[in-house]
């Protein structure tokens, strides 16, 4: 993953795998700058998942631009409310603001996976 060490990338992949296994949803993370508006870019990333998009959650983070978006598919949204995503995003942004990119990512992926599992 761009911007992370190999060990950090492995940690993020493990967190994604755990969230997917527990919740049955597909999780993805994109780190980098958006092309165009950040929300529109995050929605395009999500739509690129095609048939899997309904059951997917995409977390888009632009560390340099200080941007964070969480996009959920139709089925995923039934288990992850906008409020739950907003609260997770606020916690992630707090970690990011003190320079803890990896901690914020791992927390966010884990929290979203747990919340989706609890509402399964």
From TrEMBL:
Descriptive protein name: DUF5130 family protein
